[in-house]
Each structure stands twice: as structure tokens, then as C-alpha cells.
Amino acid sequence: MRTRRPAGLLLDIDGVVATGATALPGSVEAIRRVAALGTPIRFVTNTTRRPRRRILESLRGLGLDVGADEIFTPGAAATELLAERGLKPLLVVHPDLEEDFAGAPVGGPCAVVLGDAGEHFTYAALNEAYRALVHGAAFYALARNRNFHDHDGELSLDAGPFVAALEYASRREATVIGKPAPEFFRRAAASVDAPLDDVLMIGDDAEADVGGALAAGLRGVLVRTGKYREGDEKRLATPPEAVEDDLSAALFRLFPG
Q1: Do the strands 155-157 and 147-149 form a parallel or antiparallel pair, or are they unpaired?
Q2: What is the pLDDT of residue 4?
Q3: pLDDT more than 70, % of the chain
Q4: 4-14 pLDDT tens trace
Q5: I need a labelling partner for 130 at 20 to 30 A (CA). Which of 45, 191, 247, 257 fits?
């Protein structure tokens, strides 16, 4: 790993900082230590089953002093984009996420917005979205991750396979709003007021976290926790700066003193 300290950090949450409501060993202490050094930290997640309010509550419940403006989610980014473009969302998302779209337009052209609806992925919901796409609706995916590390320790289907299904059926390509979309990383990096190549992303997803960050011009470190599986780093066109055992090890290597 390079010895140069990053000017800012972007951290994935699930599988990196915590699993569910349980912090991974050493993660909270390491984050507090780095924050005390004055390094700005942002939490960037592709989770689309929980609103930003609940993510904030979870992080604070772990003992982290975090503000809402330090959390970047696809739902919040999508609401801003819909408002900018005057698009009314047709939501295919988990009901818990709907509160994040309270500020979205209620009129105007239609836009299909698909996230991880979990058990709420029904034929009726997907077919309604398909018909809207056939009739010309814009198509946005909050994320297209293949899977996520579930609370039982196994991998579960994420939104990506359902995005692919609608793309195949409608012959339309979704615009991805969350990771690995470059604009998502750049917006989070801009909030720490540092050059892109001096902001470092730490995640457990080789494609969405590290690959996306590198493609956007940031630095990236992969950790062997959460959804990581042996050899994931070999699938990246550009290798990460390092592959560390966990977040604590990565932060202590980057900030040794």
C-alpha cells in the first residue's frame, strides 16, 4: 500500500463497518481514531432497503458521531436527480425506502426507479415497470449489485439481477445512480474538498466499491470481509492499492500514527 495518507475516506457500510446492527471487530475504534486526526470520512452505501434516516440511526447506534450530510445513498441521489429533471418516479423499491422519495416530483414524465425491493419484487410490480419502459419512461437503477452479504452470513440476490431482467425485456439500458456510477463517487468525494486522486474508497465489493472508485479517479482498497470472496481482486482491470483483512487493518496501515 502507498504510504501517502489520503485526504479523505469513503467507507462502505454493510460488510465493512458492520454486519446488520453489529460492528465488525475494531471498525468503530479505527474510524474514531482516524476522525480524531481530522481526516474527513463519508459513508457511501448501495443499500436500498433502508432510508437514510435509519442508516444514520444505525451508525450512531454503533457509537459513531455521524451527520446526515456524511451519508451518501442512491435513494437520496435519485431524489435530487428526479427533482432536477422534473420526473415523476414509478418506484420498484422496498416500502421502507419510499420516505427518501418524499421530495420527488408528483407530476411530469414518468421514470422507473428500481432498487432492492426484496420480497416485494412481484410479477405485478415488475410488469408495471416493464410497461412504463415500453411506453418511453426513463429507467434508473439505484444500484445493480449482483448480491449482498445477508444477516445469516450467506449471499443473497441484490437489485442487479432484476435490473438485468427489465433491461432484457424492454431492450432498454438502465442508468445506474449508486455505486459504481462515477458521479456517485465524485459527489461524495467533492464533499471532503480534496482532489479525486487523494480520496480513498474502502469496500468489500470488488466491482461496485473498488472498481467503481478507481474508474472515477479515486484510490481504492478492498477488504476481506462481508461479501468478499477469495480472488475477487483478480477480476479488476486495475488492481486496488491493497487487499486488507478488514477495515481496522486497512486504516491502521494508512494512518499508522
Answers
A1: antiparallel
A2: 80
A3: 98
A4: 899 999 999 99
A5: 45
What count of residues does the chain have?
257
Whether cis (ω within 30° of 0) applies to the bond prior to 180 is: yes
CB atoms within 10 A of CB 247: 29
Amino acid, single-letter form, for residue 85: R
Cα→Cα distances 28→54, 76, 144, 205, Å: 18, 25, 28, 20
pLDDT band at 3 (very low <50, low <70, confident <90, very high): low
What integer is the mean pLDDT of 111-119? 96
- CB–CB of 5/219 below 8 Å? no
Q: Predicted confidence band at 1 (pLDDT cuts at 50, 70, 90)?
A: very low
Number of helices (H) and strands (E) in the chain: give both, helices first.
8, 14
Closest to 14 in 3D by CA, of 48, 53, 65, 39: 48
Chain CA centroid to CA 113, Å: 16
Q: Which of 216, 214, 209 is nearest to 241 (CA)?
A: 214
For the purposes of burial, counting CB atoms within 10 Å of the CB of 102, is it exposed (0-12), middle (13-18) or buried (19 or more)? exposed
Mind listing the pLDDT tens digit for each residue in 206-257?
999 999 999 999 999 999 999 999 999 999 999 999 999 999 999 999 999 7
E strands, the chain, in order: 8-11, 18-19, 22-23, 41-44, 71-72, 88-92, 110-114, 138-141, 147-149, 155-157, 175-176, 199-203, 219-223, 242-244
Pick from 14, 2, 8, 5: which is nearest to 203 by CA? 14
Enter the C-alpha cell of residue 68: 446526515
